Amino acid sequence: MNKYIKALRAPFLIGSIAPVLIGTALAFSEGFFLWPNFIAALVGVAALHTAANLINDYNDAEGSDAINLRVTPFSGGSRAIQDAGLTKSAVAGMIVISLILALASALWVIKAGKPLAIPIGLLGLFIGWAYSAPPLQLMSRGWGETAIFFAFGPLVSLGAYYVMTGHLSLGSFVLGIPQGFLITGVIWINEFPDYEADKSVGKRNLVVRMGPEMARYLYCFIMAMSFMSLIFIIAFFKISFLIMLGFISFPLAFKAMKIAWKEYMSCEKIVPGQALTVQTVMMQGILISLGLLISKLISGYIKI
Fold first, then answer.
1. Please, which residues have CB within 8 angstroms of residue 78's CB and are 6 or more apart in sequence?
2. Given 1.10.10, 3.30.410, 1.10.600, 1.20.1280, which CATH number is that of 2-299?
3. For the whole prediction, is pTM greater than 0.90?
């Protein structure tokens, strides 16, 4: 059983749950909220994220994961195939189960009168598949980081908002941008320990293409932009200034940046930076959501 749990990479679901909270909080601030739809959104997004992780493990089984000797708790894949003895057939079965769960969640939302849940979910699934699987394998072409930014940030916050309200909004899309930067930061810092293995099998992600020394500059820029984008959103969109609560999580990001800057070539010493990056994702997501909820409580009562 442990090998199946390991393959799920459950801690990384934070990367998709946080923007669900943000999109839902924005809908709440506008007077929309339904518990069944919220649960369906959480389950559906988590299932799609799990499927994407499993697709990645399946396609990397004979690739960089197989030869990677610089494995950390956050990078190098789940290792369920390499270390726990899970077969590729079992991983394929888990992918199917995850997709069935995602489909069931989507059908529930459609029944509730939100038909666009299907194309939004399919777009997310396509990106998750295209990131790892041939013939596209965006992770090897320098487009993987951009795809992750979009799929685990703006697309999820937009989808969660739609599930609550029944309509799309530009505000719900841009509110996912800070999280998009942070989840890209998670992918980015995890690519440092994987550098040698990725390079040897031709997995030319952006860290491989520009080299670790230069890539650390971009990691710091990506993390900083997550917070600077909050200012941009407040300035150009009708979003409450209380989303600035997200800045409370900046010390976590700053510590991660300091570690990555100094220890980018150390497999062991970069681990705290990886952990801090993941923690920043969840903390910032909660704080932005809290800001939106407070804005609603200040302006009046919600009609559920």
1. 6, 7, 8, 9, 53, 57
2. 1.10.600
3. yes
| Per-domain boundaries in the chain | 2-299
Q: What's the pLDDT tens digit per position in 131-157?
A: 988 899 999 899 999 999 999 999 999
For residues 251 and 266, give the distance between their C-alpha atoms in angstroms, rounded to a whole number: 22
**Residue predicted with more confidence, 60 or 217:** 217
> pLDDT tens for residues 161-195?
999 999 999 999 999 999 999 999 999 999 999 99
pLDDT at residue 156, rounded to an integer: 97
| 3-class state of residue 108 by DSSP | helix
Residue 285's φ and ψ, nearest 5 degrees, are -60, -45
Ramachandran bin of 90, using left for φ above 0, alpha for ψ from -120 to 50, beta for the remaining angles: alpha
| Residue at 205: amino acid letter | N
How many other CB atoms are there within 10 angstroms of residue 269's CB atom? 12
For residue 5, how many other CB atoms are within 10 A of its CB?
A: 12
Tokens of 106: 């989507």
pLDDT at site 304: 41
Pull the structure tokens for residue 186.
């998670």
What gap in Å lies between CA 124 and CA 54, rounded to an integer?
15
Give CB contacts under 8 A, 24+ apart, made by 32-36: 32/164, 32/165, 33/164, 33/302, 33/304, 34/112, 34/164, 34/304, 36/108, 36/112
Calculated CA dihedral for residues 293, 296, 298, 301, nearest 10 degrees: -120
